[in-house]
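## Example pair
The file below holds two records. Each record gives the amino-acid sequence first, followed by its structure token line.
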Amino acid sequence: GEWYELEGVHGNKYRWIAEQATAKLKRVKPGPQCLRIRGHASAPGIPGEVRAVVNGVEAGSWKLDRPGLFLLEADLPDASEYAVEIHASPAFRVPEDDRRFTVNLSMIRLVGRD
């Protein structure tokens, strides 16, 4: 699996990912779209990087230079649906767990571009 199980409490749910995760987004409103990704970087993953590839084309690349919440946005070309690949690095492990972690993500959605 690319997405680990849902964690957190109501109002603050998130999923950890390893180096890559994919999502399919369908537009609900007409007009230009913007991809919005909210997540959290942990100290072992700093400095890090998150890249978004949408419909096979790189949409954005962001350096993570401090732990904590991040909000990433990228303008997208017109399409009826969007195949979003999130690439994150570096991966790290924690004791007592065999999973590989990069960042955790709490939101990936399309918003209208103003």
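Second record, same layout:
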Amino acid sequence: MSGISQRNNIHRIIDANLNRAKEGLRVCEEITRFILDNHRFTALFKKFRHQIDELAREIYPVSALLSQRKSNRDVGRFNSSGELKRNNCKDIFWANIQRIKESLRVLEEFSKLTDTKVAMGFKQLRYKVYEIEKASSKKISSLPDSG
């Protein structure tokens, strides 16, 4: 695999994980905003989404990421076993907080190839997500098991 081809594939990984992390944050933000009515958690999730954008812009031009996006040919596109089963808002929240942490780890690892400062930023953000997960745990767990 040529260096250009490998870089292009890394851009695909970065693009997918930036989207995944921000989408997961948005889902958690909506739950804390509209279901928990919790201003603090809502503001933190929003802040984290914006921090991801700031970190990414430092080393990943949007045009480079978009030019390598191949959503229609993604071999993992239809691999959704387990993603379709959610029983309630708690399930949705926990699935998405996990998605955020995993995506941030991927972003951290692949950013090490380009800029260790940005990689450390993703790592610090991942640890902040661990903290909000712990802090919100009691409130999320108290949600009803239905709906």
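Notes on the second record: DSSP finds five helices and no strands in the chain. The mean pLDDT is 92.
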